[in-house]
Amino acid sequence: MEKAMIFFDIDGTLLDEQKQLPQSTKDAIFQLQKQGHEVAIATGRAPYFFKELREELQIDSYICFNGQFVVYKGEVIYKHTLNATSFTQLERFASSLEHPLVFMSAEAFTTNHSEHPDVIESIGSLKIDLPDYNPNYHEQTNLHQALLFCKEGELEQYQNRFQDFRFVRWHPYSVDVLPKDGSKAMGISKFIAHAGIDLKNVYAFGDQLNDLEMLSYVEHGVAMGNAPIAVQNQARYITKHVNEDGIKHGLALVGLLNN
């Protein structure tokens, strides 16, 4: 078999609902590496929120901020940021509606409303520390991504008004704010072009709406059994639930794990 390149989402894919790494997943990753395959992470998280996971799995290549920041074997090879002028307008509009924002750069994770219950609930679901309070942070540095906190019926006004951005829901209370051309698929395209990897040898595992483009772009997209139907419909394969050894099963399903 030719050497494969496999990208894994984190939440709901590598990590289960309790944000734990199943032992079967860890074993499967190490077996892939032993067989000579390359493994990378593709996540919406900032790099400082999965440093320990990278170390545990001995992974030094990753795509984060949903494709806006790409690292190949420890080297940053691609960075993309939100349009600063348009984002300032978005921040003012969101503030007028009392919708909080979280600002995400490669260095920090801050918010303009640290005590809002929607921020506490959604960020808490990731089992990471709440963002620091710095309402002017977006004016001080380039952002790779932001989080907007609004309910389902409140999003359309942003989509109509702010054409420079994509809004991808990740929680009932929150959406990712990305550049209009930003996605994990874009990040993967930059990664494999730099590494000289043929798309026919690329696999990806994911489970959420921010994985749609990635799963349809790669030759071998694998949706987790816990993924919504819309995500499963974009994938070539569907594996078991993350809690049911879904990664191990999926890798066997596509023929990447030796018996």
TrEMBL record:
Organism whose genome encodes this protein: Shouchella xiaoxiensis
InterPro entries membership: Cof, HAD-like_sf, HAD-SF_hydro_IIB, HAD_sf
Superkingdom, taxonomy of origin: Bacteria
Pfam families, alphabetized: Hydrolase_3
Protein name per UniProt: Cof subfamily protein (Haloacid dehalogenase superfamily)
